[in-house]
Design goal:
282 residues, mainly alpha, Pectate Lyase C-like, 5 helices, 0% strand
Length: 282
Amino acid sequence: MADEPEPDNKPLQKPVVWKELKIGDYKLYEQPLVATDWFFRWAAYYLSISGTIAFVGYLGKLSIVVAAISYVVDAPERKKKAHYDAWAVITSTEGKGGNAGRIEALESLNKDGINLSGVDLHKAYLGKIKLPGATLNDANLSAALLRDADLSGTELNRANLDGAQMVVTNLQGASLREAQLRCAYMVGANLQNAHFEGAHLEDADLTGAAAIGANFNGATFSAKTTLGAGTDLRGANLGGAIGLVGGQLDRTQGDEQTKIPWDFARPNSWSSSAPKPGAAGK
């Protein structure tokens, strides 16, 4: 009778340690499965080399794995709660002056791609806030302080910015179609390639603003709208602007690319050179 083969008592191959698993490289929904598989591989490995007694000692590490899995699974709920808390800060301070945590709340929501349309930030202090690419359509920012804020590429269509303080604010590439900007203070603001079609700019101050390539077609101005020294209108479109009066453009910068109302004389001081890309300041 032939000898029966002896059972293979060789231990299983040792799995990788947790650090080498690099669970963060997996997709979110895969991570719990990968972590569970890793745990059972280690369980089988310990059983193969030491039996159940050694495995009991290993169970102390189970809490680490469970905590890691719970952290991943609960991530959406934590994010949802963070958004809820941020909105609570914003809504509880509507119509009040000061910051009151709104800057951090708004920046956090915008970073997560949350639509901020219709938000009420009347009189809010938002100096130096960073909201590039934010969606703020129909928002109320009247009398808000937005000095040195980064609103580049934002959507502010139909937003109320009457009386807003936007000194050296970055609005490059922003869309302010049909926005209310009466008495807005935009001294030194970067308005390069911004869209103001149909906006109301009565009595606004654009002294020193860099409005290179900006579109003011259909925008409404008034005799008290200040387009003073240093206002850069090279390549801008004011062809369909409403309410401009004679001499209002005399102290501005412009060139042959600047479109003005058909009944306006082109100022003699305007250059004939086209605007250079990136010529605006901030």
